[in-house]
Every structure is written in C-alpha cells, then in structure tokens.
Amino acid sequence: MKQAGVFLKKNKSFAVFAALALAIVAVAVFAPWIAPYDPYEAVMTDAVQAPSAAHWFGTDKLGRDLFSRVIFGTRTSLAAALFLVAVISVFGTMAGVAAGYFGGMVDSVIMRISDMMIAFPGMVLAIAVAGIMGAGIVNGVIAIAIVSWTKYARLARSLVLKMKNRDFVAAARLTGSTTWHILWRYMLPNVIPTLIVTGATDIGTMILELAGLSFLGFGAQPPVPEWGLMLNEGRAYMQTAPWLMLFPGLAIVLVVVVFNLLGDSLRDMLDPRNE
Questions:
Q1: Burial grade of 174 (CB within 10 A; 0-12, 13-18, 19 or more)
Q2: What local confidence, expressed as pLDDT, does residue 273 receive?
Q3: CA 232, 234, 238, 242 torsion: positive or negative?
Q4: Where do the H-state alpha helices sit in 58-149?
Q5: Distances 85 to 89, 130, 141, 211 between C-alpha atoms, Å
Q6: Euclidean distance between CA atoms 154 and 93, whole angstroms
Q7: How far apart are CA 144 and CA 134, in angstroms?
Q8: What is the block-wise mean pLDDT of the chain (275 residues), using blocks of 10 residues?
C-alpha cells in the first residue's frame, strides 16, 4: 500500500487520467444501472423535448431519452475502440517484428503492403472498404483495422532493427536460442512498452474515426446508441434542438481528451529520462 502511495504521488498526472479513464470504463460497464430509461424506447409524445428534470439531456426525434443513449453510447463506442486498438496493435506488432527481424522478402512484402495503405488517406480508404462491405459497426471496425495497423508495424519494425544486432541478441544466438525464444524473450519485451503508449493514445483516435464513419452513415446503424450516429441524427435539428448534437459531441470530446492525456502521461512515466 505504501509503495502504491509513493507511485501515485510520483506520477500524479498518470494517476488522475487513469482514474478518469477507469470512470469512463465504469460508465460503459454499468450503463444499464446508470441510464434512467431504455435507450431504445421511443415515446413519440415526448419527441424533441428540451433538457429538463425528467430528461437531463432532452429527448431525440423519437422521444428517446438522450442521456440514456449517451450513457449506452459509451459502451458502444468504447468497446469498439478498445477492440479495434487491440486488433491493430497485436497484428501490426507481429507483422513489424517479423519484418524487422527476418528482413529480406518478408520485410519487403510487409512494408510494400504498408506503403500501399499509407499512400491513401486513412479515412477515405476506410470509407471505401466500409462501403464495399456494407454499413454496420462491425464492418466499420474491420474497415478501420485494415487501414490502421501500419503504424504499429512500422514502429515495431524500427525498434527491432535497432535491437537485433546488439550483443545480447548475438549472445543468445551463440548459446543456441531458437528464433522464437529470441523474439519472445528479447524483442517483444523491448517493443511492447512503446506500443502500449501508442495504443493508449490511439483509443481516442479510434473513437473519433468510428464516430466519423457512423456520422457519414458507414458505421453504426439505427437504433444503436452510438455518438457519431447521434450527431448525424441531430443535424436536421441543429438550430431548433441543438442539444441533440451538443451532448454526444461533448461526450466524444471528453473521452478523447482523457485517453489522449492518459497516453501522454503514460509515455512520460515510461520515459527512462524521467527516472
């Protein structure tokens, strides 16, 4: 307990943003108990009501409680973003480590595929992929994953290239260590901390990209409570009912800022120059 107190005191910024991130995760997990109404229940007599004691964030065009939909939107957006970051970080890291360590044809193939992905604007390519596959939150996640793994691959490759010719790796080879043992014992442990920081920062980016796809009609589809979709549904009421866009937009801003600052504080904490 004393060590935990010392750690938190030394890394105050990380402790604050980690607590805020955990609070956001808790909102997603306990959404059914936090939301006062069913986010899918339409009550047409309550359509487009302004924020009040009964409906804190007002209601949408179908009379659904906006506060409940924003709370459940945390579950939808955060779960999709976390799954997306996990997929692209694992796949990209594996590809990058393989390219950096084995080199030759393996490196050429992986990096040329990466170059093709980077040649197109990421969001435009994701829209094209989602358009081919069809609209939906799952297809949106797949589309963004296809165009986003390259960052992790290139980062992992550059880190492996710096390490694979060092003395401790050469010593491992001389003692008869297998390739997989070297990758698992020496390469991955040195790559993972940097990729964890990148992944933590990317959570906010993935939430923004998923919300962008949903806003354009290629992501989540009605009646799923998702922030980008709610922004799209509120466009027609921007002047008469601005709360329909205000509260989902604030939710996106809050979550993105928290996870971006969490990534920054995690980077500062893991930076050996700050020891």
A1: exposed
A2: 53
A3: negative
A4: 66-102, 104-118, 122-133, 137-148
A5: 6, 18, 10, 15
A6: 8
A7: 13
A8: 62 83 93 91 86 89 91 91 91 89 86 83 81 84 88 88 79 76 79 84 89 87 89 87 91 92 81 53
Whether 47 and 62 have beta carbons less than 8 Å apart is answered as: yes
Query: What is residue 59's DSSP assignment?
Result: B
Contact 147, 117 (CB under 8 A): yes
CB burial class (10 A; 0-12, 13-18, 19+) of residue 102?
middle
Tokens of 13: 């910024």
The set of residues, in sequence order, having a beta carbon less than 8 Å from that of 269 and lying 6+ positions away, is 11, 14
Do 60 and 66 meet the contact criterion of CB atoms below 8 Å apart? yes
State whether residue 65 is helix, strand or coil.
strand
| Three-class DSSP category at 239 | coil
Q: Please, what is the end-to-end C-alpha distance for the chain in angstroms?
A: 21
Q: Which amino acid is at 171?
A: A
Range 110-125 burial, b when 16+ CB lie within 10 A, else e: bbeebeebeeeebbeb
| CA-to-CA separations, 115 to 62, 135, 140, 146, in angstroms, rounded | 46, 26, 22, 13
Count of C-beta atoms within a 10 Å radius of residue 130: 23
Predicted local confidence at residue 30, as pLDDT:
93
Q: How far from 81 is each of 123, 136, 209, CA to CA, in Å?
A: 15, 14, 9
The reply to whether omega before 223 is within 30° of 0 (cis) is yes
Tokens 């059914």 locate to 32
